Backbone:
């Protein structure tokens, strides 16, 4: 199979073919996602929430991200593997940011990194790009800054914030990013940005006009029982299905129906 590259993603935008992106954090899930034909697998810092049970993405460390990413890379035969630089690993200075990105590329074997923010992180983005590491931007709702905003509601509804986002998107393109995630912003703004930049935009809660879409796999498979924001389309209810299977197993053990004669040596 031919590996998806940032160059192929650009061609997809140019010919109007939408880009499919989904998160994965471990080998087995990533193998299923890759086999299904996903274009991009994101090793998101949402691992902090869905894998580790933290309330925010802030606690996950660079070492933990590298562990998740290396597992995903071993499974991904076709997808481009993008890895989030976690909170605290790139905001300090550009040298530190570059070291973090190099560790992700070297120790995990990732293909690209993703970073939250616009003009504020321009120097770090630029330095990482100079080292030949592809960078994906992330604008709109940026969960690593949750304590600055206080809520996970829709971003850039006010003109001042919308204008900053437009400028940030152009800046990220100018720096050389190969794509930008747009999280939880009005569909109209996402459409404008997607048309104003040449590079692909990947939306989550940003409407249908983005060049691609991304979701957290636990959310779209319905593994997280309670999480049902408007933007989420749930393609399965694995919580129910797994719960049923596990209860059946417990019942079979208790009732002594498992293992049976054929299931023993
Ligand atoms: O960490 C993550 O899963 C993400 C996506 C929601 C874009 O950054
Ligand atoms: Na993230």
Residues:
């Amino acid at each position: 199979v031919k590996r998806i590259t940032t160059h192929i993603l650009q061609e997809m935008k140019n010919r109007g073919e939408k880009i499919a992106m989904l998160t994965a954090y471990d080998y087995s899930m990533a193998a299923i996602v890759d086999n299904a034909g996903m274009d991009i697998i994101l090793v998101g810092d949402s691992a902090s929430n869905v894998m580790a049970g933290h309330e925010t993405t802030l606690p996950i460390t660079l070492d933990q991200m590298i562990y998740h990413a290396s597992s995903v890379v071993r499974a991904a035969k076709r997808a481009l593997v993008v890895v989030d630089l976690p909170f605290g690993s790139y905001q300090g200075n550009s040298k530190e940011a570059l070291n973090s990105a190099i560790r992700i590329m070297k120790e995990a074997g990732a293909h690209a990194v993703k970073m939250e923010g616009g003009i504020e992180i321009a120097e770090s983005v630029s330095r990482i790009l100079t080292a030949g590491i592809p960078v994906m931007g992330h604008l709109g709702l940026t969960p690593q800054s949750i304590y600055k905003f206080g809520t996970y509601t829709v971003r850039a509804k006010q003109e001042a914030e919308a204008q900053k986002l437009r400028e940030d998107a152009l800046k990220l393109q100018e720096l050389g990013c190969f794509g930008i995630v747009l999280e939880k912003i009005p569909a109209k703004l996402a459409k404008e940005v997607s048309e104003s930049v040449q590079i692909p935009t990947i939306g989550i809660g940003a409407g249908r006009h983005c060049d691609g879409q991304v979701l957290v796999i636990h959310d779209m498979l319905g593994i997280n029982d309670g999480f049902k924001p408007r933007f989420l389309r749930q393609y399965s209810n694995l919580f129910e299905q797994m719960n049923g299977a596990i209860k059946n197993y417990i019942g079979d053990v208790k009732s002594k129906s498992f293992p049976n004669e054929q299931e023993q040596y």
